[in-house]
Structure formats: structure tokens, C-alpha cells
Write a sequence for this structure.
């Protein structure tokens, strides 16, 4: 009896965490998959089973191909540019300079501010008539006339996407930079000194010492960014609502618009999103052989 | 020690379970929240906001009624929630989808809720539904029973800026599409926006219908069959596309919502725009245009002004879930009093929905002509699928002025046919 109680003891410690994950993480996934297989009326009543019909409707959605393509571009560009800029920023913040502490603190601002607020501020700044961005561009001679097609950046899907990517990069920078900065701080100075003695140049040292030793930090930053950017909703919703039509929608905003009228189909695309994120992350970790990097 | 800790852990797990259940099981809605102590009831009212800012938010209007009502009926309180128009549909849809029902809504009306049996018939929650303007009865009726009760109505007209017209050397209000095109071209040359065309999600379905009507088109034919991609409708959008590509409208109409454009009209930046009486207070509040600087005329059609315009009503719906039919009836009979109808109409320059209030206003110089146009006005489709079709129209029809009108309207037509 005493032995059985003893062997159950770890369960008591792990139990709350397991229960929390089961209730908060796993159960919604089960409900989601279940909803995607049901025929749900627009007012939330389950009319009956739908089998795979929600998925086939989704597959035949004319806007789907464009939305998926845009999502891939969105994730790849935002994460790649964020990472490149953050590598440079982390390097900068790793140096000693006056007011470094203040500068490091200031970097938190885009992260601490609500993303929705940041997106709104950018939307106003891009107003074709009175937006700050347009006023600056007009003064520089780049925007020729206020209120014109050219000044209406968010009305043109291509440019709207570019500006939304800029906002997404802006809000992703702080976290990524901090992740990389903490990675930089773990590299012992002696390694550089030794390389310097051996006559290595700065660029060579960066490629052969810094980048390889930063790999765990880069992997973590990339993985978390991919998930965050893929699921990013407020930036696109506040700036263009995914419009005109679905021309600036990613799978996340597309799902939200579908939900208004077609709940089952929206659940189906949520399941697809969920699966896609997991697949992307697994493939990424596999390709980069993360275990080797970490150990 | 260990024993106590494990007991605490077990309690924590149990607590988590209860908390998780608690959050999802409370779906009865606010309707029942106030019932209990002393037989008092709290009705949950969700209304759209017709105001242009904090000074005239509809929250004030409804709270005023709620307070007066509570004085007369101390056992019933009304909890007022006001939602901006742009979010109204999705908020109500989300509440209903989550089975978190209000008792009363005022704003857009969803006939599919009547179909699902979620609503009280008008006869159960109003002493005399026959008082409501008969022209809007069909839109709120499902299977011969009226569920949607019009609360406020409006008709559409073409507003134009007389000042801009005079400067551009135009002496007549536009009557035809050709006039619109010619006038917009002249206004554009002055550096202003010729025609304001709001085809963004806020109310694209209204703007589109006004153009459809100009060519004898509509969303449906007389028999109730969808005709979204009829030759007339495609011709209307082809003409609009011509306006857009010539730069006679604001940039990218597919992304422009009605309210911001109305505000620009009020600032004197737009020559012509289709509007409702609700545009008038926006003009007055902006303080840029004097009342002699603008005018409103019948909407221009392909060959002449529309003889029948779009009549729109916003409805009250009463949800069954709370089981408060008697209390709702008391409140609605109170809120539909002529004085409150008139207060609403004066506040927002909209039209009444009861015969008594309409009669009082029909001799007014501001409202008279609008009210006379109401009985013959054209309505949106009354199908239960209209709510879903409307959402699709709002999201997609704006792309028809940049892409191909026939393919965009064609895809909306097939969605509508699928929804029935």
C-alpha cells in the first residue's frame, strides 16, 4: 500500500500541469476538429454532421489559393527580415556605449504597446489626406498629391501588404533582438581573443564563431516568430480588414471573415492552420537539426 | 506536510476543472442575470450606435428611455449596450452563435433567427404591431408571422455640394449616369473628389443596390430568384468601374466605408455622394457647409432619376431565451411611444417607423418628402439567407470595380443560390 501511494506521488506534482494543458490546450483542439466536421447554421445551431463537406467547400473557395500564397509570403518575409535586422540590432546592443541601458529599455516599447494600437497608429499615419507618413513622403517629393491613388497606400493590396509587413517586423523586433542578445552574451570573450591572436578578421570571426554559437538562440527566435507571425491577426484586421475582397487576407483573417457566415468551414480552415503550423515547425526543426545545435 | 501539499494540489486540479466548466456553462445570457431577488427582472438591450461621437451616442437615447421606464416599472431594469455599426452584425452574430442571447436588439435584423425559432412574434411583445409602418412588414415576416419590428427607417437620396457645382460651372443637379460622369470629371479637375463611392464592408450592399436600381436591376427578381449577376447589374458595375478607372471617385472605393466618406463630404471635399437623412447631422456637426451649400435630390439612374428609392429599416427583435415576453412587451410599448420616435428622428435625422409618428412628421419641410417616398420604397430581400448573402456582398462586391464585374457578381450569385 505504501509503495503504491509512493509511486503515485509524482502524479500529484505533475497532475495540475497536465490537467491545465489538457483543459486549456488539448480540449479546444478536440472541440475545433469536432466543429469542423459538423454542419453548423449561421446562428450557431448544429444542424447535423457534415463529414468532410466543410473541407471540400473550403478547398473549392476561389479565394483560397491567393490567401495561402499570401500567408506564405507574409510569414517568410516578415520572419526573415526580422531576423536579419535583429542580428544587427543585437550586435549593436551588445557593444558598450553611453546610455546603453536606456537604449535597451527603449527597445521594449514596440513590444509593450498593444499590437492593435500600433496597427491603428500606422493606419492613421498612412491616411491619404493627412497621414504623417504621407506628409513626410510628400515633403521628400515621393508622394505627388494628397488624396491620390498613390497616397492611398492601404487601398492597393500590394502596398498595403508591404506596409503591414513593416508593422509586423516592427513589433517582432524587440523579442527577436532580446533572444539573440542573450545568445550573444553566452559566447565567452576568450574565444574571440584566441581567434584574434590567430589572425582572424572580423567577418571571418562572425561567420565561424558568432553565427554557429548563436544557433540555438536563432532557432528559438525563428520558431516562435514563425508561429506568431502566422497567427498574426490584429495588424491585418486593423489596417485593411483583409480587403479589398480577400486581397490582403492571410489564412487567419480569412478564417475570421468566413466565421461570420460559415462556422463549419471556418473551423475547417482553423484545423488546417493548426496542422500547417505544426508541420512548418517540425520541418524547420528537422532541417536545422535542432537537437545537434542544442547539445 | 507532503499530505497537505498533495491535498492542495488535488484541490487545485479540481478547482481548474470547475473554473473551466464555469466559463462555458454560463450561456443563459444576461437575460436571467437580474431575475431572482424580489421578482425583479433585468432586460438586456443591445442597440446599434447611430451617433457620430460621445455627444450624441445612442447610449444616451436608450438610457433615457430605460430610466423613465424603470421609474414607471420599478421591477424591471433595462441594461443598455450600444455597439458601433461597423461591428454590429458580427457582435450580434457572435452572441447568438455562442448562445449568449440578448433580450432585445435594435439594428440589423436577421430573419434566419426567426426561422430558428429564437424570436418572439411581434404580436407577443407589442400591444399593437399594426401601428408599425406596413411597408416594412414583409421584411420582418417569416412564414406569415411578423418577428422583425421596424424601429427607425430611412430612404436614400443623392447629396451634392452646390458650392463645388457652382465653381465647376455646373448649373443642374445630376439626373443620369451620364450627368454623374460629366460632373465628376469637372469636379476632379478642381482637385476634389467627383463622386464618393463607398464600396467597403460597412454598407456596400446599399450603394450597390442604388446603382442596380438605376438600370432596372436588383438583387432578386419579382419572383424572389437571385439576379445578382443580371445584365443590368453587370452594366451598373461596368459603369462604376469606368468612373473609378477615370479617377472620378475617391481612390480604391472597394476599401472605403460609408461613414468616413460622408465625413469627407461634410468637409467639402466630395462633389456628390449617395446618402440618407443621417448624413445631415454629420454635415451640420462639421460646420463647413452651410445649409445652402448642399442639396439632396432623387438618385440618378441610367436614363433618369429613380422614381422608387431604397427604403431601409432597422428592426427591433425580441429573443425568447430569457423568457421575458411580458417584460419585453411592457418595455417595447413604452419605447415605441411617439415622443421617443420623434426624439430619435430629430436626434439622428432619420425617419419614424410608426404610423402615428410618420403622420406627425409628414407635414415637416425637412422630413415630409422622405416620408411620402417611404410607402413606395424598394426593400432588401426578405429571405432568411439574406444575412449571409449580405455579408458576402459587403466583403467582395468592392472588387468588382477593379476586377471583372461579371465574374465578381457571378461568384456572389452562385454563393447566394447555394444559400437559397
Amino acid at each position: 500500500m505504501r509503495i503504491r501511494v509512493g509511486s503515485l506521488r509524482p502524479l500529484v506534482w505533475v497532475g495540475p500541469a497536465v490537467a491545465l494543458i489538457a483543459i486549456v490546450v488539448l480540449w479546444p483542439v478536440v472541440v475545433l476538429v469536432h466543429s469542423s466536421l459538423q454542419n453548423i447554421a449561421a446562428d450557431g445551431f448544429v444542424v447535423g454532421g457534415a463529414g468532410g463537406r466543410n473541407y471540400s467547400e473550403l478547398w473549392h473557395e476561389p479565394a483560397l489559393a491567393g490567401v495561402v500564397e499570401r500567408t506564405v509570403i507574409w510569414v517568410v518575409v516578415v520572419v526573415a527580415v526580422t531576423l536579419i535586422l535583429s542580428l544587427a540590432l543585437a550586435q549593436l546592443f551588445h557593444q558598450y556605449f553611453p546610455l546603453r541601458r536606456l537604449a535597451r529599455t527603449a527597445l521594449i516599447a514596440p513590444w509593450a504597446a498593444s499590437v492593435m494600437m500600433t496597427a491603428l497608429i500606422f493606419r492613421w499615419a498612412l491616411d491619404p489626406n493627412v497621414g504623417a507618413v504621407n506628409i513626410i513622403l510628400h515633403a521628400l517629393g515621393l508622394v505627388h498629391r494628397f488624396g491620390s491613388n498613390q497616397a492611398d497606400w492601404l487601398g492597393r493590396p500590394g502596398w498595403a501588404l508591404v506596409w503591414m509587413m513593416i508593422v509586423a517586423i516592427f513589433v517582432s523586433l524587440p523579442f527577436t533582438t532580446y533572444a539573440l542578445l542573450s545568445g550573444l552574451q553566452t559566447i565567452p570573450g576568450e574565444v574571440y581573443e584566441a581567434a584574434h591572436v590567430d589572425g582572424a578578421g572580423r567577418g571571418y570571426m562572425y561567420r565561424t564563431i558568432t553565427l554557429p554559437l548563436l544557433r540555438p538562440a536563432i532557432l528559438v527566435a525563428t520558431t516562435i516568430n514563425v508561429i506568431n507571425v502566422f497567427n498574426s491577426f490584429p495588424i491585418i484586421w486593423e489596417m485593411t480588414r483583409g480587403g479589398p475582397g480577400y486581397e490582403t487576407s492571410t489564412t487567419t483573417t480569412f478564417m475570421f471573415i468566413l466565421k461570420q457566415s460559415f462556422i463549419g468551414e471556418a473551423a475547417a480552415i482553423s484545423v488546417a492552420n493548426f496542422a500547417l503550423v505544426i508541420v512548418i515547425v517540425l520541418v524547420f526543426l528537422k532541417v536545422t537539426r535542432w537537437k545537434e545545435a542544442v547539445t | 506536510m507532503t499530505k497537505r501539499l498533495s491535498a492542495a494540489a488535488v484541490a487545485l486540479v479540481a478547482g481548474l476543472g470547475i473554473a473551466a466548466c464555469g466559463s462555458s456553462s454560463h450561456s443563459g445570457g444576461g437575460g436571467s442575470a437580474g431575475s431572482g431577488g424580489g421578482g425583479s427582472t433585468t432586460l438586456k438591450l443591445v442597440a446599434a450606435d447611430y451617433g457620430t461621437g460621445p455627444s450624441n451616442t445612442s447610449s444616451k437615447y436608450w438610457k433615457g428611455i430605460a430610466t423613465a421606464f424603470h421609474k414607471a416599472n420599478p421591477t424591471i431594469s433595462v441594461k443598455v449596450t450600444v455597439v458601433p455599426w461597423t461591428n454590429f452584425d458580427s457582435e450580434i452574430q457572435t452572441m447568438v452563435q455562442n448562445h449568449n442571447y440578448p433580450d432585445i436588439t435594435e439594428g440589423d435584423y436577421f430573419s434566419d433567427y426567426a426561422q430558428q425559432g429564437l424570436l418572439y412574434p411581434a404580436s407577443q411583445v407589442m400591444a399593437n404591431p399594426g401601428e408599425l409602418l406596413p411597408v416594412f412588414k414583409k421584411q420582418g415576416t417569416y412564414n406569415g408571422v411578423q418577428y422583425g419590428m421596424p424601429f427607425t427607417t430611412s430612404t436614400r437620396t443623392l447629396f451634392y455640394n452646390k458650392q463645388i457645382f457652382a465653381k465647376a460651372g455646373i448649373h443642374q443637379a445630376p439626373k443620369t449616369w451620364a450627368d454623374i460622369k460629366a460632373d465628376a470629371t469637372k469636379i476632379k479637375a478642381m482637385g476634389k473628389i467627383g463622386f464618393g463611392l463607398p464600396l467597403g464592408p460597412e454598407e456596400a450592399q446599399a450603394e450597390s443596390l442604388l446603382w442596380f436600381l438605376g438600370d432596372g436591376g436588383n438583387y432578386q427578381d419579382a419572383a424572389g430568384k437571385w439576379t445578382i449577376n443580371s445584365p443590368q447589374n453587370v452594366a451598373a458595375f461596368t459603369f462604376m468601374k469606368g468612373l473609378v478607372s477615370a479617377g472620378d471617385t475617391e481612390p480604391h472605393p472597394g476599401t472605403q466605408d460609408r461613414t468616413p466618406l460622408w465625413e469627407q463630404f461634410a468637409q467639402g471635399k466630395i462633389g456628390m455622394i449617395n446618402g440618407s437623412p443621417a448624413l445631415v447631422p454629420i454635415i451640420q456637426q462639421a460646420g463647413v457647409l452651410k445649409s445652402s451649400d448642399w442639396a439632396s435630390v432623387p438618385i440618378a439612374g441610367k436614363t433618369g432619376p429613380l422614381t422608387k428609392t431604397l427604403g431601409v429599416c432597422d428592426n427591433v427583435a425580441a429573443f425568447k431565451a430569457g423568457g421575458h415576453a411580458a417584460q419585453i412587451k411592457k418595455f417595447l410599448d413604452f419605447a415605441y411611444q411617439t415622443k421617443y420616435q420623434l426624439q430619435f428622428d430629430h436626434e439622428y435625422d432619420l425617419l419614424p417607423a410608426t404610423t402615428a409618428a410618420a403622420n406627425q412628421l409628414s407635414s415637416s419641410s425637412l422630413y415630409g418628402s422622405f416620408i411620402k417616398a417611404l410607402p413606395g420604397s424598394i426593400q432588401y430581400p426578405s429571405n432568411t439567407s439574406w444575412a449571409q448573402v449580405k455579408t458576402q456582398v459587403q466583403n467582395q462586391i468592392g472588387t468588382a470595380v477593379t476586377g471583372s464585374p461579371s465574374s465578381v457578381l457571378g461568384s456572389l450569385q452562385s454563393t447566394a443560390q447555394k444559400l437559397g
Observations:
- Chain A touches chain B at residues 9, 12-13, 15-16, 19-20, 23-24, 27, 41-45, 62, 128-129, 147-149, 151-152, 154-156, 240-241, 243-247, 257, 260-263 (CB under 8 Å).
